[in-house]
Amino acid sequence: MRHSSRLLTLAGGLLVLALPAWLWAALPREEIYQPGQLKPVDSQLKVAVGQVAPDFSLPAVSGGRVSLSQYRGKKNVVLSFVPAAWTPVCSEQWPGYNLAREEFEERGTIVLGITTDNLPTLFAWTRAMGGVWFPVLSDFWPHGAVAGQYGVLRGDGTSERALLLIDKAGVLRYIAVQDINIRPDLGVLMGEIDKLR
Amino acid sequence: MKKLLPLLLLAIMCLGGAPPAAASPLKEGDSLPALKFAAPAQAAQARYLGLAIGQGQFSLGQVKASHLLVEVFSMYCTFCQVDAPQVNQLHELIKQQDLEGKLKMVGLGAGNSEYEVGVYRKKFNVAFPLLPDADFSAHKALGQPRTPFFVLLKLSGQEAPQVLYTHLGSIGQAQDFLATLKQKAGLK
Fold first, then answer.
1. Class of domain A33-194
2. Segment holding B187, helix H or strand E
3. Phi/psi of residue B132, each to 5°?
4. Which residues on chain B are in Cβ contact (under 8 Å) with A12?
5. What pTM did the predictor assign?
6. How many CB atoms are located within 10 Å of the residue A134 CB?
7. A25/B74 touch (CB, cutoff 8 Å), yes or no
8. Which residue in the list A82, A90, A172, A177 is annotated as catalytic?
9. pLDDT tens per residue across span A8-62
10. Which residues of A touch B (CB under 8 A)?
11. Residue A78 CA to chain centroid, in angstroms?
């Protein structure tokens, strides 16, 4: 019994020492699947700047459903499609948007994060990243229906790394289908949002 | 005892701290590769580094100090975000201990544009200069370290800066980290 108590104290002490490195909202690379270099773009856009963005309704990690039209007349919307949970670039891109929350909010803009993963996967992944302030939506079933509607569904069932900016009137104002292997520069996106002012 | 094993294992695994380096980052005894950066636009930051106002480019060897601590970070790196307050405290301690003439700090934003570095500066109120490295060129020259990665350099005029010490991951307590830096640099 005394032996067990000492072990418990030792384990607890070691955990406390270890906390700053691992458990403060940081996702170690060893926990992330490494897909290697992928074909930069593997889809054909079906939407264009100037048209009204197709409406959709998807289940959110936080519960309930989120539709694009609920933001009409209220906020600009950035649709951030990322290829998959637990992959390298995606696991940095959204924590970066977390840091830039005030930058988006100052510009009257909400981010909707979308992947074709299912809800339990997205739940675990976003928790491992320490959570994100914006809605994270699952386009899992019917698989990739929204990504397909926008023309950003890749041949392997993942989505492109794409950013689509929709103004308060629901009109697409900027589309960037990025090389899937490269994180988009946030400054470029903010510059496009600034043009809506 | 069986119930305690997972806890012990988790604790021991966690003690690994930040993940190991992916490529071959700089190490003690190396010389810093020749790198040029755009001088900070803010006059106060240019003055801090001892650069002429309006100077176009500069190399880290030109910084007016005997030693320079470089933090390789990224706005997108959650480890860096978590560690930012301790790093700010380190910068403050250097000032409080009147070491600023000898030991200066810069951050190098791996893969970060000027805008992204600015978001990080604003969010954490970082007082020391942060330099963008949007195309990862400086990061590659440093051996592609994971972030945050700290390099203590000895600056000696025209010669290439020498690496005195490197550290991967959180700095932990700022006071302890500064003590290590002073010991490595031979600063009182």
1. alpha beta
2. none
3. -75, 150
4. 7, 11
5. 0.81
6. 20
7. no
8. A90
9. 444 433 333 333 333 333 556 666 677 778 889 999 999 999 999 999 999 999 9
10. 3-4, 7-8, 10-12, 14-15, 17-30, 92-93, 95-96, 99-100, 102-103, 129-130, 183, 185-187, 190
11. 11
